Amino acid sequence: MTKITAALRGMPALRFGAMALLGSAVLAASAQISLPMWPVPATLQSLAVLLLGALGGSRLGAASVGLYLAEGAMGLPVFAHGTAGIAVLAGPTAGYLLGFLPAAWVAGLAGSSWPRQALVLTAAHLLLFVPGVAWLAGFVGWERAVMAGFVLFLPGTVVKTALAVAVLRVTRRG
Description:
Elements: H1 3-9, H2 13-31, E1 34-35, E2 42-43, H3 45-56, H4 58-73, H5 94-107, H6 114-127, H7 129-140, H8 142-149, H9 154-171
Antiparallel strand pairs: 1-2
Helix pairs in contact: 2-3, 2-4, 3-4, 3-5, 3-6, 3-9, 4-5, 5-6, 5-7, 6-9, 7-8
């Protein structure tokens, strides 16, 4: 358990809410750093999701993602390219956005040993592709969804997961 996770465990509700709001803001900012790809843009969101869960714990990571999704559903321009609304949550990227919830939760189980961190963060990152590709297939078909919604993202997934593990290792040393 990290110092951050331990500090959050007994946190009053107001402080927890403020931390979740901060996490949702980090996630919203990461959505704006994007490579325009179709039908799913490549963003830094998955890196943010991994770090929110791994550094804050499962509860705070998932709460941050849930708040982010609620903000976007209410019309705040927090999704990639400043988009918002229910239409985004019903569009081609909806499965990935919803996949952030279990990914953040699983990332919160990263533990303190680097092999476990690497394994758990890799699993969390790959987990978000399951609902993402499944939902995307309804728009573009299975073969194209797997290629455009998973295979093309694998190099970035490897880099972002390694970066998340490195950040986690550095933050847990102190």
